Amino acid sequence: NDIENFNFYMPIIFKLTVGEKLKNKNKIIVISKKLEKVFLNHGYYKEQIWHKPNPVDKKFFLISEKKKTDKIVILHLAKFIPRKKQDFMISVMKFLPDKYHLNLVGPFENEGIYYDRDSEYLKKLKKNIFDYGLTERVTILNNYVDNPEKYYELSDIFVLPSVNEGLGTTLLEAIASRRPVVCNNLYNVFGEYVENSKNGFLVELDPKKWARKIIDCGLLDDKELKIASEKILRCASEDLIISKYNDEIIKILENENSNS
Questions:
Q1: Are 215 and 96 spatial neighbours (Cβ–Cβ below 8 Å)?
Q2: How would you label 127-137 residue by residue, b for 16+ Cβ within 10 Å and e otherwise?
Q3: Rounded Cα distance, 101 and 90, in Å
Q4: Residues 99, 70: contact at Cβ < 8 Å?
Q5: pLDDT, tens only, 163-191
Q6: Distance in angstroms (rounded) separating the CA atoms of residues 69 and 177
Q7: Beta-carbon count within 10 A of 12 CB
Q8: CA distance 50 to 141
Q9: How far apart are CA 169 and CA 183, in angstroms?
C-alpha cells in the first residue's frame, strides 16, 4: 500500500546465510512510482527495481459502450473496509441529482481479526443509506465478484476514493473499459493513469467537489477515454506483463551465471 517505509520478515537462517547479499540477487517489483522512491531511499539501485502495474485481463479492453439511459450508474468496486471509503461515496450521493445511482460492489470478510471492525463498518453504510433517504439510489453487493467486467459494462462512471492505496487494480480495469474515473487526489499513485479533464478527475475528499466532478464526467470526450484505454493496454495488459516477467527472470539468471 501507500507507505513511507517498509519492513519485511526474513527467517533467521536466511538472514544468516544471505543477509545483505539479498539486495544484489533480486528484482524488487513495485506498483507505483511512490513505492519505487521508497526502495531507492533504502539503498536499492534503480536497475534492481521493476515498476510494474498489476496486469489487466484483455476482457476489460473488450467491454462495449454502455447504452445511454436516463439513469447514470456510478461503480465503486472494492473490498468493504474503511480505507476504501464507501461511506464517503454515500455522502457524495446526497449532492447528486436523482438520476445518479451508486453500486457498491466487493467482497466482505466474514471472519478474521478485522471482522468486528468491518462488520460495524458495513452496518454504518447501510444505516447511512437509510438515514440519507438513498435506499432507491444506492445498492450494496457485499460478495466476492468473479465477473467484475459485468459491473463495468453496466456503469457510466467509476470511482475510487480510497486512502493509503498502492495502486488500485480496479482503476486500471475501469480505464481499460473506457469508463471515466473520479479518484482521491493521490497524484503520485493515481496520477500515473488519471489525466484531469481527459479520462477523469483527481479530487480531494470533499463530497460537494466530488459531486461536481462526477457530473463533469458527462462532458469528457470519448476519444480521450479510448486513448487512455490504449495506454493501459501498452503498459499493463496481461500478455505484456507475462512477457516482461520472462525477460526479468532471464536477466536475473544471466546475472547470477556471470557472477559464478
A1: yes
A2: ebbeeeebeeb
A3: 10
A4: yes
A5: 988 888 999 999 999 999 999 998 888 99
A6: 18
A7: 7
A8: 36
A9: 13
Q: Which residues contact 129 (CB under 8 A, 6 or more apart)?
A: 90, 135, 138, 140
- Listed in sequence order, the residues at least 6 apart from 77 whose beta carbon sits closer than 8 Å to its beta carbon are 105, 106, 145, 148, 151, 152, 158, 170
pLDDT digits (tens, 9 = 90+) for 21-78: 565 667 788 888 888 888 888 777 888 888 889 999 999 999 998 777 889 999 999 9
| Model confidence pTM above 0.85 | yes
Residue whose entry in the numeric block shows the C-alpha cell 464526467: 217
Copy the grid coordinates of residue 159: 470511482
CA-closest candidate to residue 183, choices 212, 159, 167:
159
Task: Tabulate helix, strand, coil % of the chain (nearest 5).
Answer: 50, 15, 40
C-alpha cell at 244: 516482461
Q: Which residues of 213-240 are buried (b: 16+ CB within 10 A; e: fewer)?
A: bbeebeebeeebbeebbeebbebbbeeb
- Integer CA distances (angstroms), 77 to 69, 223, 227, in order: 21, 24, 23
DSSP string of 17-35? HTGGGGGGS--EEESSHHH
CA atoms within 13 A on the CB side of 176: 24
- Measured CA to CA, the distance from residue 153 to residue 67 in angstroms comes to 9
C-alpha cell at 109: 470478510
Task: Tell me the β-bridge partners of 259.
Answer: none
